[in-house]
Amino acid sequence: MRVDDAALVVVDVQNDFCPGGALEVPDGDAVVDAINRIAHRFSARILTQDWHPPGHHSFASSHPGRAPFQTAELFYGEQVLWPDHCVQGTAGAAFHPELLTDGADLVLRKGFRREIDSYSAFYENDRRTPTGLTGYLHTRGISRLFFVGLATDFCVAYSAIDGAREGFEVAVVEEGCRAIDLGGSLADASERMTAAGVVRVRAADL
Ligand code: VGL
Ligand code: ZN
User: Are 141 and 162 a contacting pair, CB within 8 Å?
Assistant: First the structure.
């Protein structure tokens, strides 16, 4: 493949999303090998890191009487409430120890505003606060994005769909992703990705 205009975007491969973590994704650590094997193929490598302050409003613990995986109305609409996870500076927020991170060009942190969650690497959950990633990619001349990471049905899907909306050619690499699958969220995310023009590829097809 032509690599000069393609970036690999590795979404939230952090300890809290891996088995034993605060918001574990089933089999989440299985993505690490798959990602490490393909990373060298891309001229740009970007890591995202879910990076919440203590008391973040996406945490159920910030809403008295609410439990994890229930929802709440925040100022921008409905928000799933999560267990406390990826708190800035904690071991849970660190990248999986076997993920190759030294070759990354950019580490993009998201979810650092207490009042707004950020599933997407492009826009926070209010859908209007940008992270700056579009500008970074444009100024680097990148037009194609390959997404991997955790979780398929939340941060990967939101990022991939926003990437397509921002005008990039977007693919998701199957072996590099695992899902939370909460109340049909995986089927729903897959449908929305297809509708947005996001292509699903296998690592062997790269
Ligand atoms: C994520 C829920 C909460 C993700 C992040 O990375 O998919 N999911 N924060
Ligand atoms: Zn989060």
Answer: no
Determine which one of 18, 29, 84, 155 is catalytic.
155
Sign of CA dihedral 12, 15, 20, 22: negative
Shortest-distance ligand to the CA of residue 85: 2
In short, whether 153's Cβ falls inside 6 Å of ligand 1 is no
What confidence category does residue 3 fall into, taking pLDDT thresholds of 50, 70 and 90?
low
Write down all domains in the chain, each with its CATH number in brackets: 3-205 (3.40.50.850)
Residue 51 Cβ contacting ligand 1 at under 6 Å: no
Q: What is the pLDDT of residues 52-104, one digit of tens each?
A: 999 999 999 999 999 999 999 999 999 999 999 999 999 999 999 999 999 99
Summarised one tens digit per residue, pLDDT across range 17-37 is 999 999 999 999 999 999 999
Angle 161-167-173 from CA coordinates, rounded to 5°: 45
91 upstream amide cis, omega within 30 of 0: no
